[in-house]
Amino acid sequence: MTEERTIKLDRLRYTKNTASSRLVYLAILLDVFFFVSIYKSDVGSYYYNILIGASILYNLIFMLAAFLASEGVKNYKKGYTWLLMALGAIQVARIFIIPVQAHAATITIKKVSYQVMENSQFIRVTLYLALSALCLFAAAVINLQKSNALASHIASLEGQKA
Fold first, then answer.
1. Is residue 17 within 8 Å of residue 75, measured between CB atoms?
2. Of 25, 41, 53, nearest in space to 136 by CA
3. N or C: which end of the chain has fewer CB within 10 A?
4. pLDDT tens digit sequence for 14-36
5. Running DSSP on this structure, what letter comes out for residue 44?
């Protein structure tokens, strides 16, 4: 191993994993944009149902879990990689719940039919969720690579001591 690579790995012991952490913060921000776009919509009573209540509850849990993971990946904890992967997969699955259903639905108000979610909003909220998932997956991959590199570097240092 080259001297430069060794120094780079040794620095990981003293620096935080800000790349993964910041990607998780961006994923949280994109999720906030998603739910603000959905919840500010006022299309009759379409959004007043149990699915929206569950979505609000999930958003709170998502933000708490993602923030916890962002703090964990700062310290190269490998276990949070799997939490980030799961949250990313759920963000992808969420595209097919509210956005797809609302885009396909129409509501009649005073004998006039309206599309619940127009194309522009559908594209926007789908993009928010997809980008949020992408940030979570990227953060997980970066954390996995860096935590594995740091663990093997620490193991090699301990092997040199013996």
1. yes
2. 25
3. C
4. 888 899 999 999 999 999 999 99
5. T
